[in-house]
Amino acid sequence: MLNNIKQPSNNFIFHLLRVLVLILLFQIAKSQDNIPTASSPKYKKGMVVCATPYAAQVGLDILKKGGNVIDAAVAVQFALQVTHPEAGNIGGGGLMVYRAANGTTKTLDFREKAPANSNANMYLDSTGKVIPDLSLNTRKASGVPGSVDGMATAHKKLGSLKWAELIQPAIDLARKGFKISKRLANDLNRTKSDFVKNNQQNAYLINENGWKEGDLLVQEDLAKTLELIRDKGRDGFYSGPVANLIVKEMKSGNGIITNADLENYHSVWRNAITGDYKKYHIITMPPPSSGGVALLQLLQSVKKYPLIKWGFNSDSTVQVMVEAERRVYADRSKYLGDPDFFKVPVDSLINPQYNQKRMENFDWNAATLSSAILPGIVAGYESDQTTHYSIVDGEGNAVSITTTLNDTFGSKVFVGGAGFLLNDEMDDFSIKPGVPNMYGLVGGKANSIEPGKRMLSSMTPTIVEKDGKLFMVVGTPGGSTIITSVFQTILNVIEFNFDMQQAVDAKKFHHQWLPDVVTIEKGALQENCKNILISKGYKLVEKGAIGRVDAILITNDGYYQGGADPRGDDTKLGW
Ligand code: DON
What we know:
There is one protein chain. By secondary structure, the protein is an alpha+beta fold. It has a domain at 272-383 and 459-574: Gamma-glutamyltranspeptidase, small (S) subunit (Glutamine Phosphoribosylpyrophosphate, subunit 1, domain 1, 4-Layer Sandwich), CATH 3.60.20.40. It is 37% helix and 16% strand. It is built from 18 helices and 21 strands. It has helices at residues 2-32, 53-64, 69-83, 147-158, 163-176, 182-198, 220-232, 235-238, 241-251, 259-264, 291-302, 307-310, 315-335, 346-349, 352-358, 481-494, 500-505, 527-535; strands at 42-43, 46-50, 93-99, 105-110, 178-179, 216-217, 268-270, 273-277, 280-284, 386-393, 398-404, 414-415, 420-421, 462-466, 469-474, 509-510, 518-521, 540-543, 550-554, 560-564, 571-574. A hairpin with a 5-residue loop joins strand 3 (93-99) and strand 4 (105-110). Helix 2 packs antiparallel against helix 5 and helix 3 runs antiparallel to helix 4. The longest helix is centred in the N-terminal third of the chain and has 31 residues, at 2-32. The radius of gyration is 24 Å and the shape is globular. The relative contact order is 0.18. It binds 6-diazenyl-5-OXO-L-norleucine (DON).
């Protein structure tokens, strides 16, 4: 009898151990496959994923008050200005992709513009050489900011709550202060000497004793600027005291933005560009972003390959994706620029046959040399300077917005008296044909400087539909790696069946034609995969973090599932 009782108990322990060993083996196998594990809470009434917990909370509060995605986006945008100063962004610009619950789409281009007094040679010396740093760390590096106009324009057309109500949370955060994260403390301490060097009188964000996690950051001048924007809308920024302070700041150095440049700034509604990848429909940003065109090209280029069979980050998957990236970035260098100034052959570039043909000359046995790849003939590195946020509301409206100051803390020039940083976006132009910009990207005529022109961007805010329904909202900062990060995140979900958080967590790699190297995050590729690629002639370079993706997935059962990038302080909140 006793034996009979003991027997099942032994069996139970044996089975338990067996299950535990199996779970352990499964986890080890998974980690060897580099497939991250994570689970995410799910929401139905709305979700915000963005770079700081404060801004995410502001966005969620607006949704809970009955605001729609655009209301939440405006509130998040201004809250990020206060709580994520690395990326600004009232002194910068950005791009928005919007999809209404009924399926209609729009994009808003609030990218900065070259000032009227700019010209193609403005960063060259008399011998035609690029003057180091002039397009990056000076007053002359700034394009005319677009973000305030962008937010006002979006709100006017699509917002529902009162504008003032959306700006107030940012004013409160600026005036009362907020506790800074370790990351922001480090970023501020690291940039202190640049702030001092570039702003003899008006350096903000400096703590003589050094910032530490949990310190309170109060920004009174910024609060006053935001109050003017709250009370006067776009005019609170583009005319009156703030505009005058921007122009005064310009005059105190070599800056060229005038009051007329500010008055004349207007964002532009543009039709989204779209393409199909298997049963998914991709809705993304047209030029002056190169990101949307490149993303569609990349997806068309890899479509016919059995990525799912090869597996996530296997040598064959990486090789095909890298070869696609090499070809697409070569096209970017020649054909992409501001469509208001240069005829970008969008339809030809995103044509599926064109991209599949571009892949025909790649050789499985050896890396194609970038020197052997020219832009096709068609019919027609890590930091926090940019930020992305994805928002959905309870009705199913979605918005994907990426904004940037370009470099971390932009030009590091503050607008004295107004409390915010200016962008150094002029470096995104091709300041001399063939000379790489800060991201190593090269360009030519399509992206040369002309007064009033928008500099080419890699920002790739994107929305994906499946069977005609909202499926994913995605985007990231990361300079030239933005495009490939969005590409990989989408494939991680639709080819490799990751959930949203896993897709965001997954380690990434990147190729951009020139320089001819594959940059990889530590741990992205297994040793044997690396060895195979190296033996075929790929140059692998390990790099810190790639991208900072904030995304939302709509699950089969209709829930919102977020992916907030652990590479930053990124936060997902929903209800
Ligand atoms: O618009 C662009 O492509 C660049 N100014 C983006 C810069 C960026 O993403 C930096 N981020 N980490």
